[in-house]
Amino acid sequence: MRSRGFEVVSTWEKEGIRIPVRKTASSAGYDIESGRDMDILPGKVTLIPTGLKAYMGEEEYLAIYIRSSMAIKHGLILINSTGIIDADYYNNEDNEGHIMVAVYNTTSQPFHISKGDRVAQGIFTRYLKADGDEAKGLRTGGVGSTGK
Ligand SMILES: O=c1ccn([C@H]2C[C@H](O)[C@@H](COP(=O)(O)OP(=O)(O)OP(=O)(O)O)O2)c(=O)[nH]1
């Protein structure tokens, strides 16, 4: 039985996309790499495609955080502070569940990222449901897919 994990998005160039790993026995985060070469321009939001999707249990999500060194040494932040990858994002009909890392370059200089550079980390997390919660909707895509 499988619980949670990562897969390469089928439409993405598989070459050079590595399934995330934790670097040490007690690291919480799975290191997530950029799926392509990119220039992260100052003062702009850039979506970094990862070439990855994640599957998990129903009451779990994958929390995406910046790698500390990207923030502290290079001034990159996540524009949404923490990316929430919902369990039902996996294999959605729009983009298959492609995980995007939404970065903002706080410096005045462009920052180059190569395919395979570790940019973010993902931590699988459990959440709790409120009494009377009977949500049944189906996710069809990514950011803003359930409204505006
Ligand atoms: O940094 C992020 C944040 C979100 N997502 C994907 C996964 C998530 O399941 C989906 C929707 O994100 P969220 O629910 O945070 O955005 P929303 O603006 O509330 O959109 P929706 O109306 O689709 O829920 O977009 C990413 O790939 N990267």
UniProtKB/TrEMBL annotation:
It catalyses: dUTP + H2O = dUMP + diphosphate + H(+). The keyword Repeat does not apply. GO terms for biological process: dUMP biosynthetic process; dUTP catabolic process. Keywords: Hydrolase, Nucleotide metabolism. It comes from the Bacteria. Residues 17-136 form the dUTPase-like domain. CDD domains: trimeric_dUTPase (cd07557). Belongs to the dUTPase family. NCBIfam families: dut. This is dUTP diphosphatase. It comes from Dialister succinatiphilus YIT 11850.
